[in-house]
Amino acid sequence: MKFSKPFYIQPRFFYVGIGIVVLFGLSYFIPVLFNIAQLSLIVLALLFVVDFLIIFIGKNKMDAMRLLPDKFSNGDENTIQLNIVNNYPFLIYLDIIDEIPEQFQVRDFKLRETISPKKSKSILYQLRPTKRGEYHFGNLNVYASSVINLVAKRFTFNNGAMVPTYPSFKQLKKFELLNINQNSLDYGLKKVRRLGHTMEFEQIKDYVLGDDLRTINWKATAKKNQLMVNQFQDEKSQPIYSVIDKGRTMKMPFNGLSLLDYAINATLIISSIALKKQDKAGLFSFSKKVENMVVAERRNSQMQYVLEALYNIKTDFFESDFSRLYTSIKNNITQRSLLLLYTNFETLDGLDRQLPYLKAIAKSHLLVIIFFKNTEIDSLINEKALTIQQVYDKVIAEKFAFEKRLIVSELKKYGIHSILTIPENLTVDTINKYLEIKARGLL
After folding, report:
1. Count helices and strands in the chain by DSSP H and E runs
2. Please, are residues 80 and 101 in contact by the beta-carbon 8 Å criterion?
3. Looking at residue 212, what DSSP letter applies?
4. CA–CA separation, 441 and 173 (whole Å)
5. Angstrom distances, CA of residue 348 to CA of 179, 345, 351, 398
6. Total Cβ atoms within 10 A of residue 46
7. Cα–Cα distance measured from residue 36 to residue 23, given in angstroms and rounded to the nearest whole number
8. Residues 150-173: pLDDT tens digits?
9. pLDDT tens, 63-73?
10. Distance of alpha carbon 353 from the chain centroid
11. Lowest mean pLDDT among 6-15, 43-52, 405-414
12. Which terminal residue of the chain, N or C, has fewer Cβ atoms less than 10 Å from its own Cβ?
C-alpha cells in the first residue's frame, strides 16, 4: 500500500454535498427549499474552511512511532506497538493505516482511534506469521481529523523496517518455564517410571549391603579377595539429533502452517530440553541432499546455532532421498544417537520404498519416525454418511486412516519407534517420547 496525498476529503463531505444538490433540484418544485439549499452550501463551505485551517495550520502536530520486536515467532501472535502523540489543542480522530508486510495479504488494514488534546496513546495490534523469512514493513500513515471531520491530514512515519521471522521461540519460552519433572502433567506431558540404569560406568567400589548383585565385578573380586561391584551413573551427554524431511510431503498445510514448520518448531523445543537434560543437541535436514547440519554438542551457544539453522530450512519440493540420508548418517554420526526423524508417510507402499534405509539406520542408532495424522480424514470418518457418495468417501477415509496404523505396526516389527500425531500435538508427543526413552535407558 502506497500513499501520496497529504490529505483527503472525508466521505461525509460528499454525502452532505449530494444532499445539498438534491435540495437544489427539489427547489424547482418547492421554491422554499432553494434558500435552505443555499444556506446549507454556505455552512458546508465555512465548515470545510474552518476544518481545513485548524487541521493544517502549524507543524509537528502529530508524532508517531512503530515499535517492532527484534524478530517474529512463527505461528504465534506477535505484538506491534504504535505510540501516537497528539499535539493539537483539541480531540483528534485518527485513521491509522500501517503498511504491514505483504506476506499477511491484508489489503484493508486500518485502526481507528481518538486521542485527547496534548496527550499520547499506545495502540497494540497482533500479527501471526505463518512462514519463516524476512517481513518488510512500509510507512506508518496517520490521518488526523477534527470533530468536524470533513478533511483529514496525513502524517507519515517510519519509512520501512524489516523483521525476521524465526521458528516459534515463544513456544520455546513456554516450555523452558515448564519444570519437566514436576509440572509436566499440566501440559499434557507424562511422567514415566524409570526402569533400571543406563549402564554408564563410573568406578569399581567395595560391595555394601543393598548394592545390586548383578553389578558384581568378579575379576576385581578375585583380585582383592572381597566383593567388588561396578558403580554406574545416569548416562549424560547423549547425542540427540532432529532429522527434518524438507521434501514435498512436508508442505501439507495445517492451521496456516506447513508440516515442515511444525517440525521446525518442535525441533527448537526438543533441542532446548535435551540440552537442559545434559544431552547433546544437533540437527540436519534432507531432501535431495543433506543440509543445515548442526553437530550435536553441549556448548553454551548451541541453541543459537540451532535457531539459525532452523531459520534457513526451506523445502525444495523434491521427493526425499532416504538413501542419501542413510549414507550421510553412516559417514557423519559415528556415536550411537537418538534420531528423531520428522517426515510423513501416507501409505504403506510409501513406507515400503524407504524401509530398507530406515532398517539400516536403526541398526546403529535409536530411530524414532515421527509422522502425521490427516485431520481432515479423521473429521470425514466422524461425520455421519447420508448419501452413497458420503458412504464411499467415508470408506476411503477409513482405509487411509487404517494404513497409518499399519505403518506404526510395520515399523514396530523392525524395532523402529514411531509417533503418529496431529500437528498441534507434535511438540508434546515428541517430548513425551524423548522422556520415555531417557527413563527406560533405551539409548
Report:
1. 12, 21
2. no
3. -
4. 27
5. 38, 7, 5, 14
6. 10
7. 8
8. 888 999 988 789 999 999 988 887
9. 999 999 999 99
10. 31
11. 6-15
12. N
Across the chain, mean pLDDT equals 84
- pLDDT at site 1: 44
Whether the CB-CB separation of 430 and 270 falls below 8 Å is answered with yes
CB 103 within 8 A of CB 123: no
Count the residues in the chain. Answer: 443
User: Cα separation of 344 and 248, whole Å?
Assistant: 10
For cell 549424560, the residue is 236
Alpha carbon distance 138, 2 (integer Å):
8
What is the Cα–Cα distance from 412 to 406, expressed in whole angstroms? Answer: 10
Q: How far apart are the first and last CA of the chain?
A: 55
Q: Provide the pairing of β-strand 200-206 with 228-233.
A: antiparallel
378's enclosing H/E stretch is: helix 375-382
Which uninterrupted H or E stretch holds 92?
A: strand 92-98
Q: Alpha helix locations (H) across 10-143?
A: 11-26, 32-56
Q: Hey, is 180 helix, strand or coil? A: helix
Q: Per residue in 389-408, pLDDT tens?
A: 878 877 887 888 888 899 99
Per-position DSSP letters for 310-363, written without gaps between them: HHT-----SPP-HHHHHHHHHHH--S--EEEEE----SHHHHHHHHHHHHHHHH
